[in-house]
Amino acid sequence: MKIACLGWGSLIWDPGTLPIQRTWYQDGPLISVEFARQSSDGRLTLVIEPNSARVRTLWALMDRMELETARDKLRERERIPEQYINNIGVWSVGGDVPGSIPGIDAWANSVGVDAVIWTALGPKFSDQNGKSPSEEEAVSYLRTLSGTVLDEARRYICNAPAQIDTAYRRRFELEFSWKPTQ
């Protein structure tokens, strides 16, 4: 079974032990993502945000394995506890198309994969799951950071692939001169 792993954030530059073939292709499906999740270490990370514009994501082939193993490997890389395995999205040929990735079936067929996995975390801000910060809230939040937390927030935003061109990213470039490094 050929399994694709979708990425738009740190998976691209830091896959860790995720068993992928190291080439990230730039012609992934269009997905609505934004810097809308306040992580436990203070960064604003890219997650699926249905109210955002869609951007072209990236993808890599997983090493040969069963679909559930691939899903579990991604869950481990993302440090998602086992009981939250549903935060790893999965689609396979013949399955229902998820609302968060319309057209995934046609895209998968066009690149010759049988299944697709991705990190399906949603927005979270001010300890509220499902809450996306507004653009102003995101900028104001980043202004409050300092030291190592600020360094890691900047590193994440700048290292996100340049093709992940979101409204918030353009605003961060204007406000902080944080430009993509890739």
Question: Could you describe the 3D structure shown?
Answer:
The protein has 182 residues and is of the alpha+beta class. It contains six helices and nine strands; from the N terminus they run βαββββαβαβββααα. The chain has a four-stranded mixed beta sheet, with helices on both faces. It has a three-stranded antiparallel beta sheet with strand order 3-2-4. A two-stranded antiparallel sheet has the order 8-9.
The helix/strand class is: alpha+beta
In percent, how much strand structure appears in the residues? 15-25%
The count of β-strands is 9
Query: Quick one: biggest sheet?
Result: 4 strands, mixed
Strand order in the largest sheet: 5-1-7-6
Shape: globular
In the predicted model, the low-confidence regions spanning at least 5 consecutive residues are: none
The helix content is 25-40%
Q: Give the helix tally.
A: 6
N-to-C order of helices and strands: EHEEEEHEHEEEHHH
- The overall pLDDT, averaged over residues, is 96
Distance between the termini: 31 Å
Q: What Rg is obtained from the alpha carbons, in whole angstroms?
A: 16 Å
